Amino acid sequence: MSVRIRLQRHGRKQSPLYHIVIADARAPRDGSFIERIGVYNPMTKPATIDIDRMKAYEWMTNGAQPTETVRAILRFKGVLYYKHLQRGVSKGAMTPEDAEIKFRAWVDAKEARIQERVKATAEERKERAAQISGSVKKVVKKKVETPVEDELLSVDLAEQAAAETAADADVVEAPEVVVAEAPAEEAPAVETPVEEAPAAETPAEEANTETTPEA
Q1: Do 64 and 3 contact (CB within 8 A), yes or no?
Q2: Which among 79, 90, 131, 206 has most CB atoms closer than 10 A?
Q3: What is the per-residue pLDDT for 190?
Q4: Distance, CA of 197 to chain centre
Q5: Count of domains in the chain?
Q6: Burial, 72: exposed, middle or buried (Cβ in 10 Å; 0-12, 13-18, 19+)?
Q7: What pLDDT score does 46 carry?
Q8: What pLDDT sits at residue 141?
Q9: Residue 17 belongs to what domain range?
Q10: Rounded Cα gap, residues 85 and 128, in angstroms
Q11: What percent of the chain has pLDDT over 90?
């Protein structure tokens, strides 16, 4: 049986919430699953990701294949890095203790950067509230590491937006055809003044009739 690690959509239409699940590759996207190993909420800033790293690693070692979005999540949460360290242990490049120390250091550094991003977001909200209330604006320095989560967020939303807006695109194109044809029907109205042009020549004929008696 082919097993995938993928996202299962929950929540409202404009407020999605995704479960990270282990499921049969043949099962529908929102159908039954084998196990849920995490939650991904792209609506928060920064995006909230809660995942069981060890469960994800065990399933990957057993052959489960993550989707593109889930792979980005696993990379962000250090699961792929942990897999890399364990490969080094199996080859004798390091001891399990050394691998665990390196992984813990990596996780602590990553979590520290996330907390910095959370604090920066809180300061940005205070600044916007200060602008609305008319108080003095406060300068906030943004961290360089923050685009990592924004990139992860955009990857997932791009996939979801493409699926959700595909049907809307067909609806939008239909009125454009009708609007484009409407001006074409009004074109004969422009030709009507051309038919009145001979009427302007009739005074010229009358002028000729008036000049003949004078001769």
Answers
A1: yes
A2: 79
A3: 47
A4: 60
A5: 1
A6: middle
A7: 82
A8: 55
A9: 3-165
A10: 43
A11: 38
Q: What is the pLDDT of residue 165?
A: 33
* Long-range CB contact pairs, 52-57, < 8 A, 24+: 53/77, 53/78, 53/79, 53/82, 56/5, 56/20, 57/82, 57/83, 57/86
Answer yes or no: is 170 within a domain: no
The per-residue pLDDT for 130 is 78
Q: Has residue 120 been placed in a domain?
A: yes
pLDDT confidence of residue 44: 85
Q: Which helix (H) or strand (E) holds 13?
A: none
Q: Locate 138 and state its tokens.
A: 């406060």
Contact residues for 139 (Cβ-Cβ < 8 A; gap 6+): none
Write the CA distances from 131 to 5, 45, 121, 136, integer angstroms.
Answer: 44, 20, 15, 7
Mean pLDDT, all residues of the chain: 73
171 in any annotated domain: no
Quick: pLDDT tens for 69-119. Answer: 999 999 999 999 999 999 999 999 999 999 999 999 999 999 898 888 888
Count of Cβ atoms closer than 10 Å to residue 35 Cβ: 13
Six-digit token pair at 204? 């010229």
